[in-house]
Specification:
There is one protein chain. With 185 residues, the chain is α+β, with helices and mostly antiparallel strands. Helix content is 58%, strand content 15%. Strand 5 and strand 6 form a beta hairpin. Helix 1 runs parallel beside helix 5 and helix 4 packs antiparallel against helix 5.
């Protein structure tokens, strides 16, 4: 059996990790980050448009994000969208630039965020295991179709388990890094 099957499986797991990174990027820590605004869309001439497509988002200081709209007429809409996104942030608009100060998190809020990222990490671990199950089922289907032997199925299952374990370790590593980022003062 060629490696294409395993490459596809590994690619699916890489996509899962990328989704986890994006999800973690949206979690507000006490540090400024442009990724906080990844999920924010703005009503721009009647169309919901992602914020990063109509403005430049910069992080000039550790606790400040600046947003400069390409079109000044969109500034009020951007400000409303940030408030509506329920990020717990208060944008300040001077007519040219929106400044978003990132307040320090309370101890209680930090603990809530850690619980949230642990739950998210567990969801991604489950996703990795679901990919493993689908890959093993694929091997069994190939065996039924007489494409591979029983020994190849056993070897394939071991290889899939090894790849899965590597990705679970990566998920745990991302979780640990995010927890440390949240808890740092």
């Amino acid at each position: 059996m060629d490696d294409t099957f395993y490459d596809i499986f590994q690619d699916d797991l890489e996509k899962t990790l990328a989704a986890m990174r994006r999800e973690f990027g949206r979690v507000r820590t006490g540090r400024a980050s442009a990724t906080l605004f990844d999920g924010v869309t703005v009503d721009y001439y009647g169309t919901q448009t992602p914020l990063n497509q109509i403005a430049t988002i910069a992080v000039p200081e550790p606790r400040l994000v600046t947003i400069q709209a390409y079109d000044r007429s969109a500034i009020a809409g951007i400000e409303k969208s940030i408030l509506k996104a329920d990020l717990g942030l208060m944008p300040a608009n001077d007519g040219k630039l929106i400044r978003v100060p990132i307040p320090e998190l309370s101890g209680e809020r930090r603990k809530e965020l850690v619980k949230q990222v642990r739950k998210t990490a567990e969801e991604f671990r489950v996703s990795v295991r679901n990919h493993r199950r689908a890959a093993i089922d694929g091997l069994k289907e190939m065996q039924k179709g007489k494409e591979i032997t029983e020994d190849e199925v056993k070897q394939g299952q071991e290889r899939i388990q090894k790849i899965t374990a590597e990705f679970v370790v990566k998920v745990d590593g991302f979780l640990k890094a995010k927890e440390e980022e949240i808890m740092e003062v």
